[in-house]
Give the backbone structure.
Amino acid sequence: MRQATPVKYAAKRSWVAGRALLVTVLALVALMVVFGRCQASAAECGLASWYGPGFHGKRTASGERFDENAMTAAHKTLPHGTIVEVTDQRTGKSIKVTINDRGPFKRGRIIDLSKAAGAAFGLPTARGVTKVCIKILKPPDRA
């Protein structure tokens, strides 16, 4: 009777281990791709405030003139031209705004809405801030 040599078993084990490692790496890459896509459109929740008076007609970080009567907003990191849906967590009401400026610069706030956008949530008259979630609807057009 012939006995299998330890070298054959070692080669077979390393082939199986290599194959398992490859499958694991591919699964991790697939998860990163899926997670990356989800993260791009995932909601960010926090406080929203509004701004307008004193900034109307001045240049925004994107270079355009600020119009407090337009449905625009400032965000710290989203690219200018990104369209986001802002949902008031208190009322459930949603609006669409275009990111055209940088801010807010007050701790705990995630977005600064123009006066018009803030008015849709009753911010300028009743309250100065409200809890919102923002979701990316459309990234900016790249020319």
Remarks:
- The chain has two domains: 1-42, 43-138.
- The domain at 43-138 is CATH 2.40.40.10 (Barwin-like endoglucanases).
- The first strand starts at residue 44 and ends at 51.
